[in-house]
């Protein structure tokens, strides 16, 4: 009887240790996956500058082609590290999990629907690190 209690206690302790090791391995993976979040978040300002430059570009010139190539290269690098842009469509319903309202604009669309994307939002490994800033429709 006493041996059986010791054996069962040992089995429980071993199972607890295995579960602990699995939990710690998962926590370590999360630390590694999100350790770059701070620097990637800082680099988003550079992506915004590229996007602004591209939006205001009337005619692509030789210099602009170079800037756009750099932008594409940077986007590819960040994508390889788990960054993805939150896709926003005009007419889409506002979702506070992914969007941040920064204003309203008159529109034919129903009230509270997205009418303009002001600044892009991003996910890092599936988590929002910056919500998309949008303008919502309001009644005329």
From TrEMBL:
<dbReference type="GO" id="GO:0051087">
    <property type="term" value="F:protein-folding chaperone binding"/>
</dbReference>
<dbReference type="InterPro" id="IPR009012">
    <property type="entry name" value="GrpE_head"/>
</dbReference>
<dbReference type="GO" id="GO:0006457">
    <property type="term" value="P:protein folding"/>
</dbReference>
<comment type="subunit">
    <text>Homodimer.</text>
</comment>
<protein>
    <recommendedName>
        <fullName>Protein GrpE</fullName>
    </recommendedName>
</protein>
<dbReference type="GO" id="GO:0051082">
    <property type="term" value="F:unfolded protein binding"/>
</dbReference>
<dbReference type="GO" id="GO:0000774">
    <property type="term" value="F:adenyl-nucleotide exchange factor activity"/>
</dbReference>
<dbReference type="InterPro" id="IPR000740">
    <property type="entry name" value="GrpE"/>
</dbReference>
<dbReference type="GO" id="GO:0005737">
    <property type="term" value="C:cytoplasm"/>
</dbReference>
<dbReference type="Pfam" id="PF01025">
    <property type="entry name" value="GrpE"/>
</dbReference>
<comment type="function">
    <text>Participates actively in the response to hyperosmotic and heat shock by preventing the aggregation of stress-denatured proteins, in association with DnaK and GrpE. It is the nucleotide exchange factor for DnaK and may function as a thermosensor. Unfolded proteins bind initially to DnaJ; upon interaction with the DnaJ-bound protein, DnaK hydrolyzes its bound ATP, resulting in the formation of a stable complex. GrpE releases ADP from DnaK; ATP binding to DnaK triggers the release of the substrate protein, thus completing the reaction cycle.</text>
</comment>
<comment type="similarity">
    <text>Belongs to the GrpE family.</text>
</comment>
<dbReference type="GO" id="GO:0042803">
    <property type="term" value="F:protein homodimerization activity"/>
</dbReference>
<dbReference type="InterPro" id="IPR013805">
    <property type="entry name" value="GrpE_CC"/>
</dbReference>
<keyword id="KW-0143">Chaperone</keyword>
<keyword id="KW-0346">Stress response</keyword>
<keyword id="KW-0963">Cytoplasm</keyword>
């Amino acid at each position: 009887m006493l041996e059986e209690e010791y054996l069962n206690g040992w089995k429980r302790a071993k199972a607890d240790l295995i579960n602990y090791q699995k939990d710690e391995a998962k926590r370590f993976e999360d630390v590694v996956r999100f350790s770059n979040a701070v620097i990637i978040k800082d680099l988003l300002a550079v992506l915004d500058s590229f996007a602004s430059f591209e939006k205001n570009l009337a005619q692509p010139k030789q210099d602009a082609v170079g800037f756009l190539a750099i932008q594409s290269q940077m986007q590819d690098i960040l994508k390889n590290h788990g960054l993805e842009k939150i896709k926003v469509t005009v007419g889409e319903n506002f979702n506070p999990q992914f969007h941040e309202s920064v204003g309203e604009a008159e529109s034919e669309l129903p009230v509270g629907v997205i009418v303009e994307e002001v600044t892009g939002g991003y996910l890092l490994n599936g988590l929002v690190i910056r919500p998309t800033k949008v303008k919502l429709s309001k009644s005329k």
